[in-house]
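Deliverable D4.2, example record:
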Amino acid sequence: MTTFLKPQIFRPGDLASNDRGGGARTTPLTTRERGATAFLNGITSFDPGARIAHHTHNVTESVMVIEGDAIVDIDGVRTALRTFDTTLVPANIPHHFENASTKKPMRIFWTYASVDASRTIVASGERGRIDAEHGDGRARGVREVARITVDEGANERFEAAVAHAAPLFQAAHGARSLVLEQSEEDPRQYQLVVSWDSSEDHTDRFRSSEAFAEWRRLISDSVSTTPDVRHFRTVLTAF
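Output generated by the structure prediction step:
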């Protein structure tokens, strides 16, 4: 089945870079706009002697030095790094990277543990999204949360039906991810969480499609009640 999200290859030389100032430039690679659903990554290049501002993130960040020698300052503790040394910095801990050389360039490859990652500059308090698709700092897209009660003894049938239906969602316009969760307290209670670019992608496009009719058919022998469906938009990612 043809899917809406397709494998991609990103070549840094073909992508736009953002000037961070002071001789540092960032090239986003995997972004939400390009299909990421759970993480972001990219490359930041440092001219000789360049550094970026001390800052924090709202999610965990991992950085690998991929060229040259670096210095990382994590909450005031400075550590020299060589090529392929890798850091893991939890949310809300101040840090920054510097090029340790005054003659050679340095590059880092970074990964954030959420598409909603943000950066807050310690000195100014200025905050912005890493994957800056909107200027208001809010996350793009919505999550459909469908609370579903399955019939007695129908858990295995229902879970198999959802697995079978996953390609229907993946092929839908604007669908980004699908997760099925089961209640610890009541195993008959499930949450189907689907990320969409917009609520209209779900309510107007998907619900009027043959794929939606097939989805309902697939779960019809394990679910007797209508799912309770709500849409949620992220307003804060704290860590």
